[in-house]
């Protein structure tokens, strides 16, 4: 049994690394293909491309390879693995270890950035934090909206309302979860120029979507949000407190300030992207896995055995 478990781990890691490399190459090609497109309204497309390598390889190993291998591999099998397989397994293990290390690092930074004293406000679900440059959405599983005291004093009631609505839009879209996954994704694409471009494009598209959902097609709310962005940017420029964690959503982003303000005040208020039906997508995905896994179990096991026979 111990030999079976050990061989399953080695093969799973090797499959993970191999499929990850193929999926990363496909994602890179897709990233290059859409590089010149206007992706302002396509945050879900950008996120899908960025996370495709890690999601595809993890689902393949966890939902298809391991069940088929455990069901069809004889318990008394005595297989020997070559150098290529061990190199692939080592690469897969390094990807997973790097992902865990990044997750721990993000958690530490988030804990440090959110360690300031929090006070309840008159608005439900909104907390005031002394050491915060603006308005932020913090947390992954139970995100909270945090706001700095200077922002409360500088913004009008209407500006504050639409600023909070912007962070509520991020919370409803699960944007902090998306940020966390992109930061910690166990794939070969991480750290590359294409990955950075996809992440930056997604960030711009997610901010545009949150702006649109916050203003709700109302020109007056759009002007209030533009005014709030400028005021928060001015306050953040001279802030000496703790910088928010990389997995947080923040109202202010200097690199996107001009584009967002021009979009908000330059014409009709932008329309909000329709919300995705997550339960339907999850049901379709699970249904496809449920159907495909038994059908592909035997061919996948035969392919694994054939690769073991030819790999040095």
Helix-strand blueprint:
Layout: H1 2-33, H2 43-72, H3 83-113, E1 118-120, E2 126-129, E3 135-138, E4 144-147, H4 149-154, H5 157-172, H6 175-184, H7 193-215, H8 219-237, E5 249-250, H9 254-265, H10 278-310
Parallel strand pairs: 2-4
Antiparallel strand pairs: 1-2, 3-4, 3-5
Give an overview of the whole structure.
- Helix content is 68%, strand content 5%.
- With 312 residues, the chain is mostly helical.
- The chain has one domain (2-310).
- The two termini are 25 Å apart.
- The model has no long low-confidence stretch (mean pLDDT 82).
Fill in the keyword field for this structure.
single chain; 312 residues; mainly alpha; five-stranded mixed sheet
**Uncertain regions: pLDDT < 50 for 5+ in a row?**
none
Mean pLDDT: 82
Q: Give the overall silhouette.
A: elongated
Distinct helical segment count? 10
Number of domains: 1
Please give the largest β-sheet. Answer: 5 strands, mixed
Distance between the termini: 25 Å
Number of strands: 5
Helix content: 55-70%
Strand order of the largest sheet: 1-2-4-3-5
